[in-house]
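Intended use. Records like the one below are meant for learning the mapping from a protein sequence to its folded structure. Do not use them to infer anything beyond what is encoded.
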Amino acid sequence: HGRRESVGPIEMHQSEDDDNNLPLGENQWQSTDVPLDGKSAITHWRVLKNIQHNNTQLSLLELKPKTGRYRQLRRHMAKIHGCPLVGDTVFAKGIEKGNNRYLGLFLCSSAVRFEHPCYGASSDIVERNRNAAARLSSDGSSGRVTFRSKGDRLMVEASIELPRHFADLL
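Structure written out for the chain above:
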């Protein structure tokens, strides 16, 4: 089983029901545990940054799905919290605000961690994979891959920087 981390800005909305508004405090982990399609769906998230863009309050979120339901992150943010991801034209219908829906969907899977499916954590394999990761890092790419042993397992961790269009918005 792997773990993913995604990042995306959302539109903040004020509503009569305070329970649906996301807290604006930064770096405090929250959980959304609301079933989707009759199955358990859990998303952990936190606000990384709050900004104004085109007269709309946006928050950059780090999202960690603990279950893998169909479009879980988008559905939890839009339907449960009333704060759709910027550019979400499917689940934001009726709650979108401003012209941010024309920017394209702002959701990026920025990190993944998983157990290597073929190799255990023998020192030879770990060292060869560390060397491969060093070569990847030295080619000027904005990503990072690391390998580490965890008991008899080889764990792979990969991450990338946010895409340029995220930086332009933020």
